[in-house]
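Please fill in the sequence for the structure shown.

STRUCTURE ENCODING:
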């Protein structure tokens, strides 16, 4: 089964696009979802985080204080590297397992792998055969990410500055969906590109 990487900057609409692929029956593996699962209560990685970074990053109920921890690692490159060394191999292993399970269980001709930082991280280069970028104007990225995550404009801009530029992302895309319109338009565009992917996947099988 062909694997298509879905990527885009913060707030570009990756999660909405992935939801629409799933709605129309395409298997989806999402690295952000996996990262979330791996840091849930009861997961060994959460215990490692508490041991390495301190119990201060846990809420009273033992769950991860995601806002506090995200700010901490975002503002401390050395700490971020420590977290990446801990969590990236686990995310990679779980993603490979989910892709293999889909290959086994689904008859769809392709599956989607959502990789928010595809071009910042070459671990997935050999896994995906095509790259679909969800793109939108930076002004939309900023307002959507601010509303979704209760972030200030400067916080969203700082995250955008830590990601590859929009021009780089677009230059590396095989396909681009522009998400400057309504959610309905985005969903329609996903359905259209799905038809195209089905045709090309069947031809290249
Ligand atoms: P990403 O996963 O790329 O960070 P999301 O898919 O979560 O982005 O989108 C960011 C926010 O913007 C979400 O709240 C989402 O519902 C909203 N959003 C995405 N696309 C649109 C759109 N075309 N119109 C209105 N809101 C949108």
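FILLED IN BY: designer on duty
SEQUENCE:
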């Amino acid at each position: 089964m062909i694997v298509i990487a879905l990527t885009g900057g913060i707030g570009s609409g990756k999660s909405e696009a992935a939801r629409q692929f799933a709605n129309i029956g395409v298997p989806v593996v999402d690295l952000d979802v996996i990262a979330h699962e791996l840091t849930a209560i009861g997961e060994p990685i959460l215990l490692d985080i508490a041991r390495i970074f301190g119990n201060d990053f846990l809420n009273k109920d033992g769950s991860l204080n995601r806002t506090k921890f995200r700010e901490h690692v975002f503002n401390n490159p050395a700490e971020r590297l420590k977290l990446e060394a801990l969590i990236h191999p686990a995310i990679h292993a779980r993603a490979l397992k989910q892709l293999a399970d889909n290959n086994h269980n689904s008859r769809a001709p392709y599956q989607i792998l959502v990789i928010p930082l595809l071009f910042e991280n070459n671990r997935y280069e050999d896994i995906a055969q095509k790259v679909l970028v969800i793109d939108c104007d930076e002004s939309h990225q900023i307002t959507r990410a601010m509303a979704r995550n209760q972030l200030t404009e400067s916080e969203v801009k700082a995250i955008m500055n830590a990601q590859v530029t929009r021009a780089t992302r677009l230059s590396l895309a095989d396909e681009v969906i522009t998400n400057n319109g309504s959610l309905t338009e985005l969903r329609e565009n996903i359905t259209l590109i799905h038809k195209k992917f089905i045709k090309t996947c069947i031809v290249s099988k």
